[in-house]
Amino acid sequence: MHRALSLVALVAAAPAGADFDVTSRTTVFPGPYAAELVKVVDGDTLDMRVAIWPGLVAEYAVRVRGIDAPETYRPGCEEEREAGKRAADAVRLLYAPETEIRLSEVSYDPFYGRVVATVARGTEEGWIDLADELAERELAQRWTPDMNDVPWCLLLSGPADG
After folding, report:
1. Taking the CA of residue 36 as centre, how many other CA atoms within 13 Å lie in the half-sphere pointing to its CB?
2. What is the pTM of this model?
3. 119 and 101 in contact (C-beta within 8 Å)?
């Protein structure tokens, strides 16, 4: 019920007369939306509390747009689990409590009932994109839905002997 009301709120927030499908990846809500980190699932998935409009808050799993981070849940190998833990720990440090967070370019993700969004944190220098931070720190790879899955175990295993 909570998600259904949130979906109704997102529809109501769309421009008047807009013809769109809220369950399509191509329908993008530009935002920005103020958000609060509830839980780091892994480096590219965050449970967030999002202010839809005054007095209406929804909680969603948010997939960070533009990257793929190693898995901590069901990794392909131990190296992936360890790399996933490093990515998740970095997000926890960067997005500590009281960090100002905003979501933009929000769209539906058909997997696990989550949304995809650009996630950024506020600093004195301006907004810093989480995808950029994790990619620059080599804790995630740039990724889009039209790409194959990142072969984490192959990438993390190092050069082959021989």
Report:
1. 9
2. 0.81
3. yes
